[in-house]
Design a protein that fits this description.
Rossmann fold, binds iron/sulfur cluster, Dimethylsulfoxide Reductase, domain 2, formylmethanofuran dehydrogenase activity, Formylmethanofuran_DH_bsu, alpha/beta
Length: 421
């Protein structure tokens, strides 16, 4: 006899960095169903049917204890294990940090390349940032730079830019949205926002356009009248909106600036916020953080003092964002074992490598050829409870166990491996 359906309220969604916590999800005999709130991405992720999955050694099914023992043997005999992927929750990341420290490993999240465009600016010149809640309740001008926020966070406009309710009398219709980029205004126009201004330019041109905006705000005259397809008159219109704003926000995702030295674009965005603060209130808001990226960086910071790309090879935490970049290390033939953690998406596969590999992955993830050990793990917030840090890095949200499948958490598996060393 099958058990009756169970309806879970106030469910936090772990499938992008916003971690919306207003979903209703029903568990029935045929799986999970998102009944209220959510978005297309949440529905397909929560409702994904897990294929049968077993721990494996060299592609052959084995009991859990055997897989753990083999993983411990490989890690124990490696001189420089690389802990990558790191798509897990707070507890899983804490366990990975402890194992890396004990085994002299290197720790780096798969999204670090994008995150470091932000970290370099934060570390070198600092910045003034806002939170999702502040933007939702106070912003009257939202400048979205180079980023397709709808693709990244399908509910960003619904929940943050144009929510049904907000505090302090800032209603959605009063909000002006400026988009700096090509084709990005579509999402803004679809939502309940007021004026929408578009400066159409390529991601590589955003830095120059924002640089000109900063120059005009300071009163400089310029000979050129067009910058990356954007006219000086259009930029002056945005300058006026910035001057008139009571609480302006500059929004970007570092992943949108995927070109060499893109940290200089982030530097311009952070600089625009600084320039405006003496005369009005402005802040930045950075997006992304899917696959536990913000969580991994936060846990690494409070455990080691550094935001990822940390090596314990010497016994102490050593920070070097260039040397401890696992993607670079794999290309250069450094390290002698890859441990890959992917508990959310089956598409979050390890990079190609000749190194022996251990994968802790969600069922459905196809371990690449040559994977020595595969251990299926649960998804935090679906198969077990957990915590995730939201993309604005200010809150950790509790995740419920919706009981989709009886799978161990990453923390469980990593702790078992450490105990077997
Ligand atoms: S916007 Fe992100 S966190 Fe919110 S429901 Fe969709 S996938 Fe989940």
């Amino acid at each position: 006899m099958s058990s009756p359906p169970v309806l879970f309220h106030d469910v936090a969604c772990p499938f992008c960095g916003m971690i919306c916590d207003d979903l209703e999800v029903e568990r029935a005999a045929d799986g999970l169903k998102v009944r209220r709130s959510g978005c297309g991405r949440a529905a397909s992720a929560f409702e994904r049917k897990l294929p049968p999955s077993s721990p494996m050694i060299a592609g052959k099914d084995v009991p859990f204890a055997e897989a753990v023992a083999e993983a411990a043997r490989l890690i124990g005999s490696a001189s420089q294990p690389l802990y990558g992927g790191l798509a897990t929750d707070v507890e899983g990341m804490r366990a990975v940090m402890a194992l890396a420290e004990r085994t002299g490993g290197v720790v780096d999240h798969a999204a670090s390349g994008a995150q470091y465009r932000n970290f370099k600016v934060l570390q070198s010149v600092g910045w003034t940032m806002s939170t999702l809640t502040e933007v939702r309740n106070r912003a009257d001008l939202v400048i979205i730079a180079g980023t397709d926020v709808q693709a990244l966070h399908p509910r960003f406009f619904e929940r943050i830019v144009a929510p049904a309710e907000s505090m302090f009398g800032v209603t959605p219709k009063d909000r002006t949205v400026v988009v700096i980029g090509e084709g990005l205004e579509k999402a803004a126009k679809a939502a309940r926002v007021g004026k929408v201004v578009s400066l159409a330019c390529k991601p590589t041109e955003v830095g120059e356009v924002v640089g000109v905006l900063r120059a005009r705000l300071r009163g400089f005259s310029l000979d050129k009248v067009k910058f990356g397809g954007v006219t000086l008159a259009e930029i002056d219109t945005v300058a006026e909106l910035c001057r008139a704003a009571q609480y302006g926000v500059v929004v970007w995702a570092p992943a949108a600036f995927d070109f060499p030295h893109a940290e200089l674009t982030v530097d311009q965005l952070a600089g625009l916020v600084k320039d405006l603060n003496p005369t009005t209130r402005f802040a930045g808001l950075t997006l992304g953080g899917a696959e536990g990226a913000t969580t991994a960086a936060s846990v690494a910071t409070w455990q080691s003092g550094y935001p990822l790309r940390v090596s314990y090879a010497s016994g102490a935490a050593e920070f070097d964002p260039a040397r401890n970049d696992i993607a670079r290390m794999l290309k250069a033939g450094e390290g002698d074992l890859l441990v890959w953690v992917a508990s959310y998406s089956p598409d979050f596969v390890p990079p190609r490598t000749d190194l022996p590999t251990i994968v802790l992955g969600t069922p459905g993830l196809k371990p690449p050829k040559g994977t020595q050990v595969f251990v299926p793990v649960g998804t935090p917030g679906v198969d077990h409870a957990g915590r995730l840090i939201r993309v604005d890095s200010v809150v950790s949200l509790p995740l419920k166990n919706l009981g989709r499948a009886a799978l161990p958490s990453v923390a469980d598996v990593v702790s078992a491996i450490e105990a077997a060393l």
